[in-house]
Task: inverse folding
């Protein structure tokens, strides 16, 4: 890296020069440096994060076209102290809901599942309980569109029919979290 001093020709210059050099401005001084080599290697995690953020951006753009959703995200932006509704929509997409509690209680021949889920700063859309039979196929399922975090469901089928219970939580941005429990 070279510093350019008192040269009227290069003063304030920035950008590429040829194939190898670049002019930069740093703390009021003009600097000449070799161009950085572009990185060609990308880890799977970096690729996944880039793809997820691309989807979050597309989601936020779509939400800005719906007046009710845009108003909702403006309110959330104020609460979260972020600059605008678009940023709040991206945050909503990037944050997944969390299943805080999922437990099965047996009473006589019936099963009851108690579920608790949350999402930081945003609402949860759907909580679903699915009973799976011995063949792995759904035997019974129920869901709630909820404004609250806790839900309890008593299965109609007897516990002899049920081998596993799957708890599914979906937020309004479409993120899904699943937990399975063996009965």
Result:
């Amino acid at each position: 890296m070279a510093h350019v001093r008192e040269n009227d020709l290069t003063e304030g210059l920035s950008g590429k020069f040829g194939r190898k050099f670049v002019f930069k401005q740093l703390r009021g001084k003009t600097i000449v440096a070799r161009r950085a080599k572009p990185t060609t290697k990308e880890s799977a995690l970096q690729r996944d994060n880039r793809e997820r953020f691309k989807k979050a951006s597309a989601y936020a753009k779509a939400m800005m076209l719906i007046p009710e959703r845009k108003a909702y995200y403006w309110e959330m932006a104020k609460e979260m102290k972020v600059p605008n509704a678009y940023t709040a929509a991206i945050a909503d997409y990037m944050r997944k809901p969390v299943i805080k509690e999922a437990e099965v209680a047996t009473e006589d021949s019936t099963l009851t599942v108690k579920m608790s889920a949350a999402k930081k700063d945003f609402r949860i859309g759907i909580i679903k309980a699915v009973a799976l039979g011995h063949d792995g196929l759904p035997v019974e399922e129920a869901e709630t569109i909820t404004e609250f975090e806790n839900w309890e469901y008593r299965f109609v089928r007897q516990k002899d029919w049920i081998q596993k219970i799957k708890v599914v939580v979906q937020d309004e941005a479409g993120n899904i979290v699943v937990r399975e429990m063996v009965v």
